[in-house]
Amino acid sequence: MLIKILGPGCAKCNRLEQLTREAVAELGINADFEHVTQIEHIMAYPIMTTPALVVDERVKCSGRIPSKGEILGWLKV
Amino acid sequence: MDWVMTAFQGGLASLASYLAAHVLLCLVPAFFIAGGLSALVPQQSIIRYLGPNAPKWMSYPAAAGAGSLLAVCSCTVQPLFAGIYKKGAGLGPAITFLFFAPAANILALSYTGVALGADFAIARILLALSFGIGIGMIMAVLFRESDVARLADSLTFAAGESISGKVFFFLGTLVALLIAGTLKLDFLKIIVFSSSVPWGGASEVQQVLDRWVPVNEATGAEGLSLQGALLIGLLVVIGATAWRGLGKVDEGFNRLTPVTLGLVAATLVFAAMGVQVTPSGISLTVTGRSLAVIVTTLALLPQARRFEAWDVQQWLWETWRFVKMIFPLLIVGVFLVGVIRVFIQPEWIQAVAGANTLLANLAGVVFGVFMYFPTLVEVPIAKMFLSLGMHPGPLIAYLMADPELSLQSILITSAIIGKLRAWTYVGLVAIFSTLAGLTYGAWVDGTSGLTLGIVVAGFILMLSATLHLIEARRRD
After folding, report:
1. Which domain covers residue A22, as residue numbers?
2. Residue of B449, B437, B433, B343 whose CA lies nearest to B390
3. Does A43 contact B79 at a Cβ distance shorter than 8 Å?
4. What residue of A is the nearest CA neighbor of B75?
């Protein structure tokens, strides 16, 4: 599983990465993390606001920090 | 050694009057509103109006709305700007967004209103809105041919959830609290009830405070009242409890969360009361303002209970994040402004910008472009200039130019839209800020609102007609 965090390195983006890492550890799954900070690369995804969470190239949410429950739901599938 | 002492006292005085008088009833609710906007307002509710096919009458106001509602923090400004430019409504609205955001977000606006006066805040938002849209339109026409082919993906601008009623009312109540605490309306000054507490030590404490932070009418130093000193003490306590109570709230509510919120509410109510030191003790006055603050604060509680716990946690976490990000810089800035104030002679300022002339307004703009102050510090600086005798016109010119243009923001924009466009934008902002200053200055000097309204409306009409003509000719 490839998990990307999109965001220019603000507090919210770091918090999202931390939450997602916790969720991955909780589920005990294997996942690669990538924190995308380049604005051109971020804009390649259909989003306008950061932070965004992308799981296997699919945008799960953008512009807000989801709760850990939500993240767990996206990672389980 | 004497001047060191004077300078230090100047800094202290500026800090004391800032913390005691301006921060509480204005910035504390404003920080909570900013946190709420960032955590509770779904960004898609505005972004969906910024798609590539959105008509102009919709995309420009939406860009301005995004500027004031979504862009309270720099980590939204950059992606939103790039997004509007590259994928959505294009260069014009993107520029409007960029121009409007620093002048019209809730923190800047409420702080301007309290420190400089409501008329400055209103002038700032009106001028920023009309000129932001104007500059956006000019840029859109100037660079039409080289406008990039945009990726039209409908997914980005899909209609998401809109702002729900409960969020709307919740933020509305917070805004009401802000207004009740800050606006100088007559019915808020009515004395409802007053009583006195006998305490012989009160006047002695006040004397000590006066010695530490002397009142000086000439330099605009407001001194430090007993109430102010108590409020600063309360702020320190709030800061200590909020570190865990709000800073760790995203891991779940902890014991300190309700303590912090309770302290904040109590502090707001205390700040809204009249406290006077008399020879025999302290006289406490409950005014219309105190009641209005109590009512609005209490009205928040049942509303907050209707949100999901995660939303409330996000709201408080965001609020604290804003405080941590902005407040320390602001304190240092305010202190330094107070120190510098001691060394600037009013005659210098009055000679350069004491009257509403073209040169004076240009001076305000140039100062704004070359100085870079962190968010919100432009306000105490403007206050210092005002107390030194700067004319309100050049002051508005400075206030328009300073947050819009800094080296940092010019670099970011030129990375996204290219150097030529970025520098054209800088030039336009400089021209329009000067115009804004001249207009506001003329109004203050007594030119009737009607005349100015006609001139500004005529200018905007002429501008849009010209732009329309150019565009129509190009299409042929």
Report:
1. 2-76
2. B437
3. yes
4. A10
Domains contained in chain A, number: 1
Q: Is A10 a catalytic residue?
A: yes
pLDDT per position in chain B (476 positions), as tens? 677 888 887 888 888 877 776 677 888 898 999 888 888 887 778 888 887 778 888 889 889 888 888 766 656 777 788 888 888 888 889 999 988 888 778 888 888 888 888 888 888 888 888 888 888 988 888 887 555 555 556 666 766 677 788 888 999 999 888 888 887 777 777 787 788 877 777 788 888 888 777 776 666 666 778 888 888 888 889 989 998 888 888 788 888 899 999 999 998 888 888 888 777 778 888 888 888 999 999 999 899 888 888 889 989 998 998 888 888 888 888 888 888 888 888 888 888 888 888 889 999 888 887 777 777 888 888 888 888 889 999 999 998 888 777 776 787 788 888 888 888 888 888 888 998 899 889 888 887 778 877 887 787 778 777 877 877 776 66
- B466's CB contacts (< 8 A; 6+ apart) are none
Task: Report the alpha-carbon distance of residue B454 to residue B363 in Å, rounded.
Answer: 27
- DSSP letter, residue B372: -
Query: Could you confirm whether A61 is annotated as catalytic?
Result: no
Residues from chain A that touch B310, judged by Cβ atoms under 8 A, are: 67
Residue B331 parent element (H or E): helix B309-343
Nearest to B79 among A39, A64, A67 (CB): A39
CATH of the domain at A12: 3.40.30.10
The reported pTM is 0.85
CA geometry: angle at B33 spanning B44 and B335, to 5°? 125
Q: Which residue of A has its CA nearest to B80?
A: A48
Segment 237-266 of chain B within 8 Å of chain A by CB? 250
Cross-chain residue pair A48–B50, CB shorter than 8 Å: yes
The ipTM estimated for the assembled molecules is: 0.80
